[in-house]
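user: Please review this fold.
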Amino acid sequence: MGNTLKLEDLLKPDCVPDESAGGENWRILHGDTLKLVKGFQPGIFDAVITDPPYASGGTKQNERNRTTNQKYSSMKAENALPDFDGDNKDQRSWTHWMAEWLYDVRKACKRGAPICLFIDWRQYPSITDALQWAGWIWRGTAVWDKGNSRPQKGRFRQQAEYIVWGSNGPMPINRPVSCLPGVFRYGNPQNRIHVTEKPLQLMKDVIQICEPGGLILDPFAGAGTTILAAAESGFQAVGIEVTDAYYKLGSDRVRIALEAGEEAENKEPQ
């Protein structure tokens, strides 16, 4: 595909995002994942790495129906980050929704392409069901150890999230990818722009499951962390983001960070 990810190379002619932003080796599409994943050209992606809405944050439905800031953030209202869409489903609806887009996105992936899905303990059983219902092979789980959590006396700390991973059919062991760790230890990012933003270095580590130089899809781009990690690490990346505020925030973040990196490289003595 070259260095520029053109819409006509990614999407079928009848599939058009609301808008898109991009640069060398990256592009973020603004629109609904359920619709856009159906429109991708078949067999173009080398990996799917994403952090979908968990639709958890509570054990009762009225708790899950709270805003994403109420569920996942302790920030005061005046400092709160924008809420994001798609996080108010009950468990049955969420599982069905996950299976639907996972089924369609598998068609857009190459044979053997890995998939990595972030999730918490509450939705762990459902996401493994959805992954397999959609035809992926579930291959295991890695752990993101955040190192801290809200303490609850007399209980184990909920200081980990999980990376459920698998592949689109057989996954040859002779791929040019090294042995990756099963536990990643990084604290939550400071000065984040998304309610559930993941650390940039964490994503740089996780995307190494993809073959070098491959094309990575993140159907829930959010703050653009996966897209930025991929572009800075020599991969190509395509993201989808439905929430207006995060489409703009994520796209701007990736563009500004990459431009700053290029400017710094140009200033280095030759």
